[in-house]
Amino acid sequence: MNPVYRSTLASIAFAAAGAFVVGLIAGAAMGWAALAGALLLHVVYHARHLARLARWAADPVAGNVPEGKGIWDEVLALVHRFERAAERRELELAEALARFRRAAQALPDGVIILDGDGRIEWCNDNAAALLALDATADVGQPILNLVREPAFRDYLNSREQHAPVLITRGHGLTLALQIIPYGQEQKLLLCRDVTRAERVETMRRDFVANVSHELRTPLTVLVGFLETVRELKLDPQRVRDYLGMMDEQASRMQRIIDDLLALSTLEAAPPPPPEQVRVAPLLARLKADASALSAGRHSVTLDGEPKADLLGSERELASAFGNLVSNAIRYTPAGGKVTLVWRDGPEGASFTVEDTGVGIAAEHIPRLTERFYRVDRSRSRETGGTGLGLAIVKHALARHQAALEIDSRPGAGSRFTVRFPAQRLAHVSQNARQPHHEAGESDHQRERGDQ
Ligand code: ADP
Predict the structure, then answer these.
(1) Could you tell me the pTM of the whole model?
(2) How far apart are CA 62 and CA 60, in angstroms?
(3) Of 287, 270, 271, which is closest to residue 279 (Cα–Cα)?
(4) Among 380, 333, 353, 343, which Cα is nearest to 287's?
(5) If you measure from the C-alpha of residue 294 to the centroid of ligand 1, how many angstroms do you get, rounded to a whole number?
(6) Per-residue pLDDT tens over the stretch 46-96
(7) Which of 263, 368, 371, 395 to mutate to test the pocket of ligand 1 (most atoms within 8 A of CB)?
(8) How far apart are the C-alpha atoms of 129 and 245, rounded to whole Å?
(9) CA–CA separation, 237 and 246 (whole Å)
(10) What pLDDT, in 10s, does the model give residues 181-228?
(11) Residue 371 alpha carbon, nearest atom of ligand 1
């Protein structure tokens, strides 16, 4: 039998027995009065305990369960045990929630929990930073009041939420937002910064379009000449002229492809182990190449006594310097001056190519190293440019921790300076101390001359 019933029945039986004894001794009236008194005491005893229990239950504080006597001791001990278990469960739940929030905070993406009406229930710090939300004050706010881009509004109201929607915010930030429904009407809103990926994707698209365009132009000309030669009866001199022009277009395509391959090697392949590059012969070779390209139309001078060698890839450095020198000749009208300057010291070294050519307007300067960016398309083409020279320079220099500075004014000429940090310099090797060959005579020329 339930202990409460047992105890209550025992109390009543005890009171009845007592009242019966009183009745025998003092008469029936006294016996009934004793029974009534005993029962009243019994009721008051239980009512007091019930009132204390009700008071505690109205505002239950763990560990403050009231104490009782007799059967109430047992009942309240049970309540106490139940209360302890509930408290433990609550703690476990709070810990699980805290663990979940810590995990959601650690996610690299923004996470927002929305209720069925699209109001914010919770968001992590990344979401707050990306969408400019206040993780505390904005709880309960409709997300559409805070993210007002029409594309997001349409997306949130549509049924097509499988793929993320892209929105652009201030400072060129591009965000991908995706809704993931879960639970009952609840939604998870994931938010990712895709600015870089989008920029890379745009660059990739532009690059493919540019390459196609650059190659298609000479190819169209080439095909046109081929058709003419095949279909018309031309005299041999005309055919030779056409073949010459076809050769020009084929060489242009060849140059573009060579430059593209050079660029892709610079981007994809790891830098070769650094070698000690002798600067003096490199400069002499550059000067000789410049004179050859100029064919006497410019005055080319070399200034500088290299006291240090460069540490890096001779091929890449020669290609970067060569592009600067060739640009100086190609963008300087006949009669102009091109000067190559080398300076080195304890704090580093610099190589400068200065010309008195057409110059560049300030707005173009930051974009010159972009692939296929040209200030004057026709001039670049006329002089055999591919639009990739300075992109090659930029990549080759980055692999040597070197910086490129461009200083130019339209009509006043240009100065391109490459700066190397001190750790890219080495003491001049024994070989390099041997007398330099004459400026203007390249190693290749010397080798050829020696043979
Ligand atoms: P390109 O093959 O067209 O010369 P580059 O990448 O070498 O391509 O140069 C990009 C553009 O920068 C050129 O088209 C030209 O407009 C400009 N540029 C480069 N060097 C000079 C220079 N020394 N003087 C004037 N403009 C220059």
Answers:
(1) 0.67
(2) 6
(3) 287
(4) 353
(5) 16
(6) 898 889 888 888 888 767 888 887 788 888 888 888 888 988 999 999 999
(7) 368
(8) 59
(9) 14
(10) 888 888 999 999 999 999 999 889 999 999 999 999 899 999 999 998
(11) 6
